[in-house]
Amino acid sequence: MELSLRSPMRAQVIKLVHVGIMVVAILLVRGTESRRARKLEEFEYNAISCREHSASVTEFGGVGDGKTSNTKAFQDAINHLSQFASDGGAQLFVPAGKWLTGSFSLISHFTLYLHKDAVLLASQDINEWPVLKPLPSYGRGRDAAGGRFTSLIFGTNLTDVVVTGGNGTIDGQGSFWWQQFHKGKLKYTRPYLIEIMFSDNIQISNLTLLNSPSWNVHPVYSSNILVQGITIIAPVTSPNTDGINPDSCTNTRIEDCYIVSGDDCVAVKSGWDEYGIAFGRPTKQLIIRRLTCISPYSATIALGSEMSGGIQDVRAEDIVAIGTESGVRIKTAVGRGGYVKDIYVRRMTMHTMKWAFWMTGNYKAHADSHYDPNALPEIKGINYRDMVADNVSMAARLEGIAGHPFTGICISNVTIGMAAKAKKQKWTCTDVEGITSGVTPTPCNLLPDQGAEKITACDFPEDDLPIDLVEFKKCSYRMSYLV
């Protein structure tokens, strides 16, 4: 006999089947979770802000095996945590492991914290690097005329952001990008490791940065920035792997950093030619202290060459340079416009250098052919004091602009030991004006010696800048998360 189900009975059977399926699904999920261990982490660190909420990237599908892409996991986690921006902020914890990822963007009132054994590995899949327009103060990319790849860790229009860790590592795996650059195959400018734009109250600290595709840390159009305890390492032959580049930024402090680089260890910038002039945003109130630099082909501290928005009030002290091309370098050219003024450097120690000091008004790399040949940069008020150097090939190479000299140069209490095969001409000076006191070897005639009584003539401000008054909080966390 054929059994026929009436519609009420049919509905009940279907409902029971659905319930059964749900029960099986729940048991499967619980079984999966039961096979994953929970781990407890306790850590603390100093930061401008502590957070009320915290999560691990593993809770959003992150896999730290060095092979699985975590780009979506990072961005999903950050998007989820954005709901807490107005409720005490949030922290994203990256546990020990190797976390392959492309570019991802930060949010305000947010901390990204890397465990001491965490490594962010930059993806070599070019599809995981969105393309941005050129920076408005540059008008074009630096590697190519078009746009630029988004930096690995990126943020714009943010406030109160911390990127830190227990000296966790960010590895840019830059050899892929360096090869493409050398072959001329890049349509866009290479990405940086960390770039924060149009933002305020930023802390980047206690991290190791390796093998960046190009620049390592690039705060731009931002203010109130702290960069502390950063170790940056790249092959000394790698192209444009600048360490830290404050660019059109106000009130910045860079301290306690160790940098081995294929380019400038710290490069202070503010836009390029007519684009930088039009944008008109200087870098000012910059502190650089307790920096150790190794860069055989570039400078410990460079001012320019992109300085068309102006650079003013830079204070650098307690700097060590080893095997580096130059100690302090000013780079500019006709067409740059802008200014570099009120620069103060003291207590610098240099070992095995090509030049201790280098200034040039003939750095001719231009964004395009539309620069104004009448836009002359103003270089004045450059103060160097209390320095020692040894094994130096040439004490100084100072080249201003004909008819528009660099002025107000002051060098005092500086002893430069020349290398065994040093240049016969220890100083070259053209189109510069200034004074010296207590400087060995004897400087050029354009920098006349004022006598021992003027040994403290070169200025160094003793007032505090606002960034020096920032107070840190002790942030402590106890986290349990699935692994």
How would you describe the overall organization of this protein?
The protein has 483 residues and is mainly beta. It folds into two domains: 40-225 and 469-483, 3 Solenoid (Pectate Lyase C-like), CATH 2.160.20; 264-450, Pectate Lyase C-like (3 Solenoid). It is built from four helices and 29 strands. The chain has helices at residues 7-34, 71-81, 175-182, 273-279; strands spanning 38-47, 53-56, 65-69, 90-94, 97-101, 104-105, 110-114, 118-122, 131-132, 148-149, 153-156, 159-165, 168-171, 194-197, 200-210, 217-220, 223-233, 250-260, 266-268, 283-294, 299-303, 311-322, 326-331, 339-360, 378-399, 406-418, 427-430, 432-440, 473-482. The chain has a 21-stranded parallel beta sheet that branches. The protein is globular, with a radius of gyration of 27 Å. It starts with 6 loop residues before the first helix and ends with a strand.
User: What percent of residues adopt helix (DSSP H or I)?
Assistant: 10-25%
Low-confidence stretches: 1-11, 13-34
Strand count, sense and closure of the main sheet?
21 strands, parallel
Radius of gyration: 27 Å
Shape: globular
Give the name of the CATH architecture of the largest domain: 3 Solenoid
Output the structural class: mainly beta
Count of discrete structural domains? 2
- In CATH, the homologous superfamily of the largest domain goes by the name Single-stranded right-handed beta-helix, Pectin lyase-like
Query: What's the number of helices?
Result: 4
